[in-house]
Amino acid sequence: MPWVEYHWTLRWDLPPGTTFPSAVVPHPSCNVTVERGTARRPEAAGEQVLVTGVTTRRFDVDVHGRGWVHGVKLRPGALTALTGHDAKALVDRTVTARDVLPVIVHDKLDDLTAGMPPAEATAAACAALGAFLPAATDSSYDLLLRVVADMLADRSLLRVDQVVERHGVGRRALERLFASYVGVGPKWVLARYRTHDAVTALDEGYAGSLADLAATYGWFDQAHFGRDFAALVGCAPSAYRRRPRQPVDSGSR
User: Fold this and answer.
1) Does residue 158 share a domain with residue 95?
2) Same domain, 92 and 10
3) What global pTM score does this model have?
4) Is residue 23 packed enough to be buried (19+ CB in 10 Å), middle (13-18) or exposed (0-12)?
5) Is 103 buried (19+), middle (13-18) or exposed (0-12) by CB count in 10 A?
6) Which of helix, strand or coil describes residue 250?
7) What are the strands of the beta sheet with 4-13, ordered from one edge?
8) d(C-alpha 124, C-alpha 118), whole Å
């Protein structure tokens, strides 16, 4: 399905009083989730089918109690391509899917149950989303996907001007494209991917200087790199390298 990046399922059953902190580096994508259980996010407001827009900072959730979540990570811009919903209005927000998706899609997703094996839940979610596929292709969305795929795959892309030159689209047109479909600008998306590369390098045991690491991924100033890194990961690069904890989950690249 050209609108979906991947599906994921999480199930937990923790003893009373036990809390497990979960942190995810943000992606330029929206997620549709079906959430069941005793431990619910405050923003769920009693709803069990939710849409979370692009998050511009680290996404933290304290997992406790008993619960089950099946999630659909959409491709960048897919929610707008499918629904026409304003991507900017969802940045850093979680809302009920009733406000965004057609009723038929919401109701089909709401039929997913915690007893479903992951493969069955994935098939059911695909069938639900397939209930409102657009009648025609969206050339602007196709262009967005090509640009994002290039940003993700080519680590030598460090500046928006490089993207503009490679894809033959004006900078302002590119910024409008991202604002309309993703809700954030191409500069943010590019910096997010290069920050992910820096996180991966540190996870793999990078032992060089942080100034060199910053320069490798497009920052000319180490202090600026440190601020951007902390905004997305939750701590400075030096602290991240020293910490004994497990790496922050960066999800699929």
Assistant:
1) no
2) yes
3) 0.85
4) middle
5) exposed
6) coil
7) 4-13, 66-74, 31-37, 49-52, 94-96
8) 10
